[in-house]
UniProtKB/TrEMBL annotation:
Main location: membrane
Transmembrane segments: 52-79, 91-114, 120-146, 167-184, 215-236, 279-303, 315-335
UniProt xrefs under PANTHER family: OPSIN (PTHR24240)
Protein name: Ultraviolet sensitive opsin 1
GO terms assigned for molecular function: G protein-coupled receptor activity; photoreceptor activity
Residues covered by the G-protein coupled receptors family 1 profile domain: 70-332
PROSITE patterns (alphabetical): G_PROTEIN_RECEP_F1_1, G_PROTEIN_RECEP_F1_2, OPSIN
Compartments in which it is found: Membrane
Length: 373
């Protein structure tokens, strides 16, 4: 694995003294047959206090509960309600599925955390990292599809509506695009999955300074982060430009007609459009914000000063990328009118109050706006 056993074992088992107290290094409690899978970089750091493990475990438990409930409800309602079976909502379901998988691996982390380290071993690490790669890259590309759907709908309201077949093909492409980035490191054809930080989480190896591994890190950074982010930014910048020009044209026309607004009878449609557009933009912004720390971490590990990557620092992006999986479903619950109607109908005890005459999709609202413009 690129390390000598004697070097790893000496780093992992060494005991230092600090003010008369014994200081153990990370990996001190890992069996000999498992420690060879841990990058030597982490084994040089002092062991983490149990209180930090327990604190992270509590945080992850709440992440896990929020994501399971939120994404589970999205999958249940969007798949079972006929009124929500639209092409656009197929992307919503796929995103919820990705977020569901992202947090479904939390029990592995919790087991490692409450056993203070690499308790699930190599197999648990590979499962954890594989689920993270599938769900993370899949969510990024799904967000790009959502951005394209909104872009197509708003910029071409009459012929830009995506059909269910096209949406299905796009989702298949997303998974065909995503799977190789999991298979390559899982089989160690290119790159590999290794423990990181407190040795309770796993990700692809961004620490090994071989030419092959650096190329892998640069490539996966480009195709799993830069590419979807550029698509998201492009599509939403085009949407903003289109909306601004459209609003300007409406204001000029209203001025010529000596009226305050041409939208007096479209208040509900505009409200639905605004709410759904805000939800889509917010979800995509959260993706960029949550995965940027991990991207920076990987670049520093492969090309920068590795001394900056302490176990504590590495756990920050590990938490931010999980947080978005918890927030996404609640954004849709708040902003999607027909989703709220279904919640009101099926789970009245939640206290959701949504009028039944509100438009539910960005396509419907945009088409009505454009038809009257």
């Amino acid at each position: 694995m690129g390390f000598s056993n004697c070097t790893i074992l000496s780093n992992a088992r060494v005991l230092d003294t600090l003010d008369g107290r014994i200081l153990q290094h990370l990996g001190w409690n890992v069996p000999n047959e498992e420690i060879i899978h841990i990058p030597e970089h982490w084994l040089t750091f002092p062991d983490v206090d149990k209180s930090l493990h327990f604190m992270l475990g509590i945080v992850y438990f709440f992440f896990f509960a929020a994501a399971m409930i939120g994404n589970g409800m999205v999958l249940w309602i969007f798949c079972s309600a006929k009124s929500l079976r639209t092409a656009s909502n197929m992307f919503v379901v796929n995103l919820a599925f990705c977020d569901f998988i992202m947090m479904l691996k939390a029990p592995i982390f919790l087991y490692n955390t409450f056993h203070s380290g690499f308790a699930m071993g190599y197999l648990g690490c590979q499962i954890f990292a594989s689920m993270g790669a599938l769900s993370g890259i899949g969510a990024g590309m799904t967000n790009a599809c959502i951005a394209y759907d909104r872009y197509s709908t708003i910029t071409r309201p009459f012929d830009g509506k995506i059909s269910k077949i096209k949406a299905f093909v796009m989702i298949v492409i997303v998974w065909v695009y995503t799977v190789p980035w999991t298979i390559f490191p899982l089989t160690e054809i290119w790159g590999k999955f290794v423990p990181e930080g407190f040795l309770t989480t796993c990700s692809f190896d961004y620490l090994t300074r071989t030419f092959n591994n650096r190329v892998f890190v640069g490539t996966i950074f480009t195709f799993s982060y830069v590419f979807p982010m550029m698509l998201i930014i492009y599509f939403y910048s085009q949407i903003v430009s289109k909306v601004f020009s459209h609003e300007k044209a409406l204001r000029e026309q209203a001025k010529k007609m000596n009226v305050e607004s041409l939208r007096a009878n479209q208040q509900n449609s505009e409200s639905a459009e605004l709410r759904i557009a805000k939800a889509a933009i917010t979800v995509c912004f959260l993706f960029v914000a949550s995965w940027t720390p991990y991207a920076v971490l990987a670049l520093i590990g492969a090309f920068g000063d590795q001394s900056l990557l302490t176990p504590g620092v590495s756990m920050i992006p590990a938490c931010t990328c999980k947080l978005v999986a918890c927030i996404d479903p609640y954004i849709y619950a708040i902003s999607h009118p027909k989703y709220r109607q279904e919640l009101q109908k099926r789970l009245p005890w939640l206290g959701v109050n949504e009028s039944s005459d509100t438009q539910s999709t960005a396509t419907e609202a945009t088409a009505q706006q454009s038809a009257t413009a």
